[in-house]
């Protein structure tokens, strides 16, 4: 038998604890955020340039659709989100969501990677959600250029778990009457003293109504959706409005938000760990919410969407040959409702996003190359490669 080298023995010793670790309890990594928010992840909006050679076959309309087109994942009405931002500054430190690593887009009104659509189960309200660009567009800055450089298909800085987690936490917090008062005042944006007088005159009824159904889950099966009419969620404020009824409708709408994200109406006792910016436990979420097969917490970074049409296998772990199947599942996990075996999403929109993503090419190096430094680097690279090959041979000997 061949004697094992000290290097091989050390490598194997380092591997042993991995197999012996106890399995962690499977969790929904998207349920609740860690509120250590990253204020410097995005750069202020200004004139930007995109390397058009990355997407030579895209039209202007294609670029606009990739940045803001729907994938059926719109999950929080714009008015609701703006009221959350005003009511809970600890959850939403910036009104433009740049603290989440998103890139502001003042022309659209929301950052790059957010789409907009009227959603029936959310009272027909104009609603926002995320698309491919939220995870696969980034900007870089340098003192050598005068404007930020936008790159498509790259790993973004989005803290997606904090994005959804903040929304979900806000829905649960607003089940408390005092928070509902602040939320509705922000939502209606009426005259503060008139709203206070109306709330005080109806407070007893409001509290009793909310106590009877704090999470808006009565009279509907778990995971199913309430029918909510547009007139029930209008932002217009008048002295005759029934605030108890309006508060209950909001609780039912919050249930619909959670149901679309496949999240139960009761918050978990313990928040899961945070994956951080540019990372997500996507498969764990889908396995738990759609397949009812929880997996150990295992986040990974968003992949690079370059030359996808030249790949046989796609996704971060190469688990499918079908990009459209992967994106349909992503849509279902990020806000497209699922009723039994029926999904509410527009196949054509998801396919268009998928087709566009397959045409993205790697970017050119955007800065001026220092040829003298490049020559020094070439020599270092050759020496490093020699050492790497020697290490690979030693590893091969261990395996053999």
How would you characterize this protein structure?
With 400 residues, this protein is mainly α. 41% of the residues lie in helices and 8% in strands. The chain is built from twelve helices and ten strands. A three-stranded mixed beta sheet has the order 1-6-5. The chain has a three-stranded antiparallel beta sheet with strand order 2-4-3. Strands 7-8 form a two-stranded antiparallel sheet. The longest helix is centred in the last third of the chain and has 29 residues, at 371-399. It is elongated.
Question: What does the main sheet amount to?
Answer: 3 strands, mixed
Number of strands: 10
Tell me the structural class. Answer: mainly alpha
- Please give the share of residues in helix: 40-55%
Global outline: elongated
Give the uncertain stretches in residue-range form: 1-45, 396-400
User: What percentage of amino acids are in beta strands?
Assistant: 5-15%
In whole angstroms, the N-to-C terminal distance is 11 Å
Topology as H/E string? HEHEHEEHEEHHHHEHEHEEHH
What would you report as the Rg, rounded to the nearest angstrom? 25 Å
Average of per-residue pLDDT values: 79
* DSSP helical segment count: 12
Strand order of the largest sheet: 1-6-5
Write a brief structural summary:
The protein has 400 residues and is mainly α.
What topology emerges from the helices and strands here?
Layout: H1 6-20, E1 49-50, H2 60-68, E2 76-77, H3 78-87, E3 114-119, E4 125-130, H4 132-136, E5 137-140, E6 149-152, H5 160-173, H6 177-188, H7 192-212, H8 243-260, E7 279-280, H9 282-289, E8 300-301, H10 323-333, E9 338-339, E10 342-343, H11 347-357, H12 371-399
Parallel strand pairs: 1-6
Antiparallel strand pairs: 2-4, 3-4, 5-6, 7-8, 9-10
Helix pairs in contact: 3-6, 7-8, 9-10, 10-11
